[in-house]
TrEMBL record:
Its main location: membrane. Pfam families: BPD_transp_2. The keyword Cell membrane applies. It is found in: Cell membrane. It is a multi-pass membrane protein. GO terms for cellular component: plasma membrane. This is ABC transporter permease. The chain crosses the membrane at residues 34-56, 76-93, 100-121, 127-150, 162-183, 203-228, 258-278, 298-322, 342-365.
Length: 910
C-alpha cells in the first residue's frame, strides 16, 4: 500500500470518526470541561474586579509571570507533577474507585525515600546517581503498597476506600512526624520537625530542570491512554468501573481488579512524589498538622478533565500556572495571596456541576423556539400543553378550584378529605409529568420534522448519503486489507512451520515427555497420599466441617424462631385486655423462662456439635499420623512406589529418545529430497510471471487513473477495467500455483527457496490488493463528485421553488390579514359613529356622568371584542390553519417529487 492509499484511508477513517456518536460524546465532555473552566474564570474575574483590579490585566500578568525566565522552571515542574498525580486519580475513577489517599501515599513515598537516601549517601556524594534510581523504586513500591491496602480493604471487607485512605493519610502523617522529630539525622537542623532537604539538581540538563519531569509525565499519560484504549486489561478495569455486577457475570475477577486499580493509582502517586521530591518540595515540614494539598488538587485536575488522559495535560497546565504564579501575581496587585486558591475552588465547584454545561445547547434551544413559534399550529399545541400544566399546578396549590375535587369532598369527613387531598395532588403531579413527556415528544417530533423536511431535509439526506458512500468505501477497503492479511498470515505460518519443522517437532516431543513426567509425579503423590490416609483425612475433615455447619445452621434457625415466637407471645399477652397487669407480668415471666430454657438447651447442643466435630477430626488426624509413622518404619510400600515412579520416568525419557532419533532420521530423509535446480527453475518462471503482471498493471492503472467520468452510466466501464486487472492478477496467481504447487512451496525446496517463493506469492497478492483498493478509491471519487454535482443542482432548483412557495404563502397570508383587518375596521367605524350619536343624545337629555362612562365602557368592550375576533376568532384561526396546512402539504408533496430525482443517484452509490 503506497502513501496515496494510506492518506486516502486515513482521511476516510478520520471522517468516519468525526461523524461518529463516540466523537460527539467526547465533544460534549470537552465542551463541559471548557465551559466549567471558563465559568470559573469569569467568577474569578468578578472577584478580582471587586478589588478594583482589571481582570484581563490580572490574567495576562498571571501567565506572564508563570512563563517568566525566573519562574518557568517552577511552572513546568508543577505542570509535570499535576499531570502524573491527575492521571493516577483518573485511573481510579475509571475503575470505579476513589483514591483520595494520594496525599498520604506521596508523603510516605517521599519520606521513606529521604530516610533511605541520607542513610546511604551521607557525605558520600558518589552514591547519589544510583540512589536516584533506588528512591524511584522506593516511591513506586511504598505508594503502591499503601494504595493496595485500601484496595484490599475495599475488595474483601467492603470498607469504602475514601474512609480507609483518609485514615491512612493521617497515620502516615503522624508516623513520619514522630520519625523526623526523634531521629535528628534525617531532619533539617535549622527547622524543627522538618525532613532533611533532598538535592534539587538531579534532573538538571544545561542548567534546567524542565525536560526530564516533562518526559516522565508525558510517558505516564501515554501509558494510561494506551492501557485503557488498546488493552484487554484496561477494558476490564473500565468494565469494573462501569458495573461491578455486570463484570462479575462476564467472568471478571472484580476483587482483583479493584486492588490492581488502586495499586496502579498508587504507583502514579509514587512517580508524582519522586518528581515533586527532587524539584518543587525537597523537604516536608510537620510543624503544622496539615497534609500536603497536592494530592487533593490532583482530584480536581482529573475531575475537570473528565478523567481523559489528554484532557489532563491541558488542565494540569492551567493548574501549574495558577499554582506557580497565582500568589506572586496577587501580590503585584496588592491582593491577598489566597486569590489563587479561591480560583482553584471556583473552577472545582463548576467542574462538579459540569453535567449542566455538557447539556448546555443554546443554539438548539433557539432553533426549537423558532421552529415552534413560526407555525401557528405548533404554537397553539404547545400553549395548550402549557395551559394544562398550569391548570394542574394551580389545582395543587388551590385544590378547591377543581370542580371534581370540590364535588367529591362535599360528602366526606375531615380525615377522608385529608387523604383524598393527598391523592388528588399526587394525581395532578403525575398528570404534569405526563404532559411534560408529551411536550418533550412534541418538541422532538418538531425538531426531526424540521431536520428531515424542506430544503434542510434534502441537505440532511445528502449529507447522510454522502457519509454512507464514505462508510461503504471504507468497509470495502477494510475487507480487502483483511483478505490480504489473512492470506499472508496463513502462508507465512505454513512457511515457518516448514522451515522450523525439526524444532517444532522436537518441541512437541518434549511437551509429551513433560506431560508424562507430570502425570508420574501426580501418580506418586496420590499413591503415597492413599497409603498415609492423607486424602481420607482431608476429605473427612471437609465432610465433618460441612455437617457441623449444617447442624449449627439448623440450631441457629431454631434459636431465632424461638426468640421470634417469644416476642410474638409477649405482644399477644400485652394486647390481651381481659388480663390484669399482674397476670400479664406473670405470664410474660413464665413465657420468658420457658423460652430461655429451650434456648439454653439449644446452645448446649450447639457446643456438643462442635465438640463432636473436633473429636472426629482429631480421630482422623491420629489415624493419618499413625499411618505415616508406620510407613516411616516400614519402607517397603514407599520403596515400591518410588521404584515404579522412577520406572515411569525412565520410560518417558526412553520414548523421548526414540522419537528424537526418528525425527532426526526423517529430517535427513527430507533434506535428501532437496532439488535446488528444480527450485531455481520454478523461481525464474515465477519471477517472469510477476514482472509481466507488474508491467501490465502499471500501464493499465495509469490509463484508468487519468480517465475522467462525468456520468453515472460511464462508471461501469471504469469498474470493468479494474475488474480485468484483478482477474489478471488472479490468473497469474493460478499460473504460479501450477508452477509452485497448491502450498506455494514443495518438499524439494530448501528453506531459502521456500521464503523466496512465499515472497513472490505475496507480491502477486499485494498487486491484486493494490488494484482492488485503487478501484474503490476511483469509484468513490467519481461517485462523490457526480452525486455532489447532481444533488447540488437539485438543491438549487428546490431552493428556488421552495422560495416561490414561501413567497406565495406569505402574500396569501398578508391578503387574509388585510381582508380581516378591513372588515374589522368597518365594524369599528360603525361602532364609533353609534357611540358618538349615543353620547350626543345623552348630553341633550342631561344624563349623569356615570351613564356617559357606562356608554363609553360598553362601546370600548364591543370594539375590543371585534379586535379579539380579528386575532383569535375561530373563523380567522380556521382560515389561518387551512392556509398553513395547504402550504405545508404543498411543500411536502414537492419534497416527495424532488426526492424521487434526488435519491436514485444515491442508491447507485450503495
Amino acid at each position: 500500500m503506497n502513501f496515496r492509499q494510506f492518506s486516502w484511508s486515513t482521511k476516510k477513517k478520520t471522517n468516519e470518526f468525526l461523524t461518529s456518536n463516540e466523537f460527539k460524546q467526547k465533544g460534549k465532555s470537552i465542551k463541559g470541561s471548557l465551559l466549567s473552566i471558563l465559568a470559573g474564570l469569569m467568577v474569578a474575574a468578578i472577584i478580582v474586579m471587586v478589588q478594583n483590579v482589571n481582570p484581563f490585566e490580572y490574567f495576562y500578568q498571571l501567565f506572564k509571570v508563570a512563563f517568566n525566565g525566573l519562574y518557568v522552571e517552577q511552572t513546568m515542574n508543577w505542570f509535570a507533577v499535576y499531570m502524573i498525580a491527575g492521571i493516577g486519580i483518573a485511573v481510579g475513577f475509571k475503575s470505579g474507585v476513589f483514591n483520595i489517599g494520594m496525599a498520604g501515599q506521596m508523603l510516605a513515598a517521599s519520606s521513606i525515600s529521604t530516610i533511605v537516601f541520607w542513610s546511604v549517601v551521607g557525605t558520600n556524594t558518589a552514591a547519589t546517581p544510583i540512589m536516584v534510581f533506588v528512591t524511584f523504586i522506593i516511591c513506586l513500591v511504598v505508594a503502591s503498597f499503601l494504595a493496595a491496602i485500601a484496595g484490599a480493604l475495599k475488595a474483601y471487607f467492603n470498607i469504602h476506600e475514601v474512609v480507609s485512605t483518609i485514615m491512612l493519610n493521617w497515620i502516615v502523617w503522624y508516623l513520619f512526624k514522630f520519625v523526623f522529630s526523634i531521629f535528628k539525622q534525617y531532619a533539617d537542623d535549622s527547622v524543627p520537625s522538618t525532613s532533611k532537604m533532598m538535592p534539587t539538581d538531579i534532573f538538571t540538563i544545561n542548567g534546567s530542570n524542565i525536560l526530564i519531569p516533562l518526559l516522565i509525565s508525558g510517558g505516564c499519560i501515554l501509558i494510561v491512554a494506551i492501557l485503557f484504549a488498546k488493552t484487554t486489561f484496561g477494558f476490564k478495569l473500565k468494565a469494573v468501573g462501569s458495573s461491578q455486577s455486570a463484570s462479575k457475570y462476564a467472568g471478571i475477577n472484580v476483587k482483583t481488579k479493584i486492588i490492581q486499580a488502586m495499586t496502579i493509582s498508587g504507583a502514579f502517586a509514587g512517580v508524582a512524589a519522586f518528581i515533586n521530591m527532587y524539584t518543587i518540595s525537597p523537604n516536608t515540614s510537620f510543624t503544622v498538622d496539615n497534609l500536603p494539598t497536592i494530592g487533593y488538587e490532583a482530584i480536581a485536575v482529573s475531575l475537570v478533565a473528565f478523567n481523559n488522559p489528554f484532557g489532563i495535560i491541558f488542565v494540569g497546565g492551567l493548574w501549574g500556572v495558577i499554582q506557580s504564579a497565582g500568589p506572586l501575581t496577587s501580590g503585584l496587585f496588592g491582593m491577598p495571596t489566597q486569590i489563587s486558591g479561591l480560583i482553584f475552588g471556583v473552577i472545582i465547584y463548576f467542574a462538579a456541576i459540569s453535567i449542566i454545561f455538557m447539556n448546555f445547547a443554546p443554539t438548539l434551544w433557539v432553533r426549537m423556539k423558532y421552529y415552534t413559534m413560526k407555525s401557528k399550529t405548533r404554537k397553539i399545541t404547545l400553549n395548550g400543553y402549557n395551559a394544562q400544566q398550569a391548570k394542574y399546578r394551580h389545582w395543587i396549590a388551590f385544590p378547591k378550584k377543581s370542580p371534581e375535587y370540590a364535588k367529591t369532598i362535599e360528602a366526606m369527613k375531615h380525615e377522608e378529605i385529608k387523604l383524598y387531598s393527598q391523592d388528588f395532588k399526587e394525581t395532578c403531579r403525575m398528570e404534569i409529568h405526563r404532559i411534560e413527556n408529551q411536550i418533550n415528544l412534541f418538541k422532538k417530533g418538531v425538531l426531526e420534522k424540521e431536520i428531515t423536511s424542506g430544503l434542510r431535509g434534502l441537505k440532511y439526506r445528502k449529507h447522510t448519503e454522502m457519509n454512507k458512500i464514505n462508510s461503504n468505501s471504507l468497509e470495502g477497503y477494510t475487507d480487502i486489507k483483511l483478505d490480504y492479511l489473512s492470506f499472508k498470515d496463513s502462508l507465512i505460518e505454513r512457511a515457518k512451520n516448514y522451515v522450523a519443522f525439526e524444532k517444532t517437532q522436537i518441541r512437541n516431543v518434549k511437551k509429551i515427555r513433560n506431560q508424562q513426567i507430570t502425570a508420574a509425579k501426580v501418580w506418586k503423590q496420590g499413591a503415597i497420599g492413599e497409603l498415609s490416609l492423607e486424602y481420607a483425612y482431608i476429605n473427612g475433615k471437609v465432610q465433618i466441617k460441612g455437617d457441623q455447619a449444617k447442624e449449627l445452621g439448623q440450631i441457629k434457625d431454631k434459636i431465632v424462631s424461638l426468640r421470634t415466637d417469644l416476642k410474638l407471645q409477649i405482644d399477644l399477652i400485652k394486647l390481651n385486655d381481659s388480663l390484669s397487669e399482674t397476670d400479664k407480668s406473670n405470664q410474660i415471666i413464665e413465657v420468658k423462662s420457658h423460652s430461655e430454657v429451650q434456648i439454653k438447651n439449644l446452645k448446649a447442643s450447639r457446643q456438643e456439635v462442635k465438640n463432636k466435630a473436633m473429636e472426629q477430626i482429631a480421630h482422623l488426624k491420629r489415624e493419618h499420623l499413625d499411618k505415616v509413622a508406620v510407613l516411616k518404619e516400614e519402607q517397603t510400600q514407599i520403596i515400591a512406589i518410588e521404584k515404579e515412579f522412577e520406572q515411569k520416568i525412565v520410560q518417558a525419557n526412553a520414548q523421548f529418545e526414540r522419537q528424537t532419533k526418528a525425527l532426526h532420521k526423517s529430517v535427513l530423509e527430507h533434506q535428501a529430497k532437496y532439488d535446488l535446480a528444480k527450485s531455481e527453475q520454478d523461481l525464474k518462471a515465477a519471477i517472469d510471471l510477476l514482472e509481466e503482471l507488474k508491467l501490465k498493471t502499471e500501464n493499465k492503472l495509469i490509463d484508468i487513473k487519468s480517465s475522467e467520468v462525468s456520468e453515472i452510466s460511464e462508471l461501469s466501464k471504469i469498474e470493468e477495467s479494474f475488474d480485468d486487472l484483478i482477474n489478471l492478477a488472479e490468473q497469474q496467481y493460478l499460473e504460479l500455483v501450477k508452477i509452485f504447487g497448491e502450498k506455494v512451496f514443495a518438499s524439494y525446496d530448501n528453506n531459502q527457496y521456500v521464503m523466496k517463493k512465499v515472497k513472490i506469492a505475496l507480491e502477486i497478492q499485494k498487486i491484486k490488493m493494490k488494484v482492488a483498493i485503487e478501484k474503490i478509491m476511483k469509484v468513490d471519487k467519481i461517485l462523490i463528485s457526480i452525486n455532489n454535482d447532481i444533488n447540488n443542482n437539485i438543491l438549487k432548483e428546490a431552493k428556488l421553488n421552495l422560495l416561490d412557495y414561501k413567497s406565495d404563502y406569505k402574500s396569501r397570508l398578508a391578503e387574509l390579514k388585510q381582508a380581516m383587518s378591513l372588515t374589522s375596521k368597518a365594524d369599528i367605524i360603525k361602532l364609533e359613529k353609534e357611540k358618538a350619536a349615543k353620547l350626543t343624545e345623552n348630553k341633550g337629555n342631561n344624563e349623569s356622568k356615570a351613564d356617559i362612562i357606562r356608554i363609553k365602557k360598553t362601546y370600548r368592550n364591543k370594539i375590543k371584542e371585534i379586535k379579539q375576533k380579528q386575532n383569535a376568532g375561530q373563523e380567522t384561526f380556521d382560515r389561518y390553519l387551512k392556509l398553513e396546512k395547504d402550504y405545508n402539504q404543498k411543500v411536502e408533496n414537492y419534497i416527495k417529487t424532488i426526492s424521487a430525482k434526488f435519491m436514485p443517484n444515491i442508491k447507485e452509490v450503495q
